[in-house]
From TrEMBL:
Top-level taxon of origin: Bacteria
Entry protein name: Lipoprotein-releasing system ATP-binding protein
Species in which this protein is naturally found: Thalassovita litoralis
Keyword annotations from UniProtKB, A to Z: ATP-binding, Cell inner membrane, Cell membrane, Lipoprotein, Membrane, Nucleotide-binding, Transport
Listed GO CC annotations: membrane protein complex; plasma membrane
Length: 225
């Protein structure tokens, strides 16, 4: 089964009102196991809406959304939340780490929320931080970390519950070019090493070219490059 399968996904905001805006038009998109797909889109193209629908944070007006073969449209909120928590990891342009918790605790929290025992959550968080080179900073709070370290910790948090799919919205967009390259290398290494699939939105064509496949989005329509 594909890890993510969107078919005929359409979305209009403010449907039926004078300010209605059709943001997605019949989007078909498939991500296979282990595949890393780039999503390149100008601002306003509908990229965030697409990622939110793929990650079950939003619902389409029509079309189907399948995660690992299971249809998610029409499922209860409870079921969608359960699938999101276990199968999907998110990384954004800004790290959104909780400021009052350490790096280690930030990576433990989603696991604890998923019912994983404290010792196991801690071991897995430490292992992830080690793999991205932030282990020496594990006991620091986000404010004490560099921008690159913050994004590495955010990546670890996204992978903490061993998702099948990573959704990333400009994950290195807030970093200087050199740091961006390093964090991107780390991201690619970690994704390849764990065999998960990823859909990664970026404005950076050099980064996009290093993924398995590039999709371009404009005015709510996807085209392969
Ligand atoms: P991108 O991430 O490509 O910049 P978005 O998916 O955020 O694009 O938004 C696409 C368009 O839809 C934009 O014009 C945006 O203002 C509009 N939009 C996004 N979310 C909403 C919403 N909840 N209500 C109304 N308009 C929205
Ligand atoms: P992110 O910053 O996470 O990529 P967005 O900028 O697209 O996401 O939007 C953040 C939140 O604000 C989303 O829930 C989205 O639906 C909402 N939103 C975005 N644009 C608009 C808009 N023009 N009107 C109303 N809500 C919007």
């Amino acid at each position: 089964n594909p890890v993510l399968e969107l078919a005929g996904v359409a979305k209009t905001y403010n449907m039926g009102k004078p300010n209605a805006v059709q943001v997605l038009q019949a989007i078909d998109l498939t991500v296979q196991p282990g595949e890393i797909v780039a999503l390149v889109a100008p601002s306003g193209a509908g990229k965030s809406t697409l990622l939110h629908i793929a990650g079950l944070l939003d619902t389409p007006d029509s079309g189907s959304v399948k995660i690992c073969g299971a249809d998610m449209v029409g499922q209860s909120d409870r079921k969608r939340t359960a699938v999101r928590r276990s199968d999907v990891g998110f990384v954004y342009q800004f790290h959104h780490l909780l400021p009052e918790f350490t790096a280690l605790e930030n990576v433990m929290l989603p696991q604890l929320a998923n019912g994983i025992a404290r010792a196991e959550a801690q071991a897995r968080a430490a292992d992830l931080l080690c793999r991205v080179g932030v282990e020496p900073r594990a006991d620091h709070r986000p404010a004490a970390l560099s921008g690159g370290e913050q994004q590495r910790v955010a990546l670890c948090r996204a992978l903490a519950n061993e998702p099948r799919l990573l959704l990333a919205d400009e994950p290195t967009g807030n970093l200087d070019p050199e740091t961006s390259d390093h964090v991107f290398d780390t991201l690619m290494g970690l994704v390849r090493g764990t065999g998960l699939s990823a859909l990664i939105a970026t404005h950076n064509m050099d980064l996009a070219a290093r993924m398995d496949r590039v999709l371009r989005m404009d005015k709510g329509v996807l085209t392969s490059v």
